[in-house]
Design a protein that fits this description.
two-stranded antiparallel sheet; mainly alpha; elongated; 2 domains; Helix Hairpins
Length: 297
């Protein structure tokens, strides 16, 4: 193997390692995201902010599809560069199949192997290449399984966030202008404790599935950025109440909201020294608030 062949092999190995590292940090590392995934999703997010209507709501699903495509592209290209120095001598060709050693042939071989299609017209002949081909097939199956799991985990997290927003809106409509003071204190305390648990769950979801942050809801009723300020109002009212059980529930909700604000501040770069300022920035980013306050981002 000459210098050029070694260079292709090293470059291909680097692309495969980049893909594996990105998948690991995005899907397996609890509170992380890979550089490829992070760059693509934030790029789509910035683009969506200049759009209106339905186009802005599909940017996040398109970004996830682009991330999966990027992972597959890195894998195909990386393995193809490893095969390229060994084409066509290192492979056995079926009858009637032209023997070619160009980059297109390497890409084709890599795609067929990664997808585990296995047409059988081009088969690795050298023992080491046979092992490499088998390794790519295993990685392709693993990548498919991982991306399906990613999708299946993301949408339940989105549903929990939307359910919290709906819950807050239903509370506002049922309680009316009186808020928690119009309810029986013990009943109100139970409702606020339930809200606190749901807010804590959303905080964990944002840490574990950071891509859910970039899903934009065009209807305020199902948007947490548009309704989270009402949760703060409920927590403040409960903490001023005379009933100790209701005050405790208010403190729980307030603490859960502070944790959510800290996640938004630390993970997604929202400005603001108070939770209210962070939530204003959150609403502004999701276009549910006008940019009128100096501490909004």
């Amino acid at each position: 193997m000459d210098f050029e062949d070694a260079l292709w092999t090293v470059l291909g190995t680097g692309l495969i390692l980049l893909m594996l590292g990105d998948v690991f940090h995005t899907l397996l590392y609890p509170h992380g995201s890979g550089p490829v995934c992070r760059t693509i999703i934030r790029g789509f997010w910035l683009l969506s902010r200049s759009l209106r209507g339905r186009a802005s709501t599909i940017s996040a699903p398109l970004a996830m599809a682009a991330v999966i495509g990027a992972w597959a592209g890195l894998a195909v290209l990386g393995w193809a560069l490893i095969y390229l120095p060994h084409l066509p001598e290192g492979f056995v060709y079926g009858d009637g199949v032209p023997q070619r050693g160009d980059f297109a042939e390497a890409i084709y071989t890599s795609m067929v192997t990664l997808s585990t299609v296995g047409y059988g017209e081009i088969v690795a002949g050298q023992p080491l290449l046979r092992l490499v081909v088998a390794l790519e097939a295993v990685s392709g199956f693993g990548l498919l399984t991982a991306t399906v799991s990613w999708i299946l985990q993301t949408y339940p997290a989105l549903s929990r966030r939307r359910a919290l927003a709906h819950h807050l809106n239903l509370f506002r409509e049922a309680a009316g202008p009186g808020g928690v003071s119009s309810l029986d204190p013990r009943h109100a305390a139970g409702l606020l404790e339930s809200l606190a648990r749901n807010v804590a769950t959303v905080s964990i979801d944002l840490l574990s599935f950071h891509e859910t942050y970039y899903f934009h809801e065009d209807k305020p009723r199902s948007s947490l950025p548009a309704t989270v300020a009402y949760a703060q109002q409920l927590a403040s009212e409960a903490q001023r109440d005379e009933d100790p059980e209701l005050r405790f529930a208010g403190r729980m909700l307030h603490a859960a909201l502070d944790d959510l604000a800290e996640v938004l501040r630390g993970k997604f770069g929202h400005s603001g020294t108070t939770s209210s300022a962070v939530f204003d920035s959150y609403a502004l980013h999701h276009r549910h608030r006008q940019h009128t306050e100096p501490n909004s981002k």
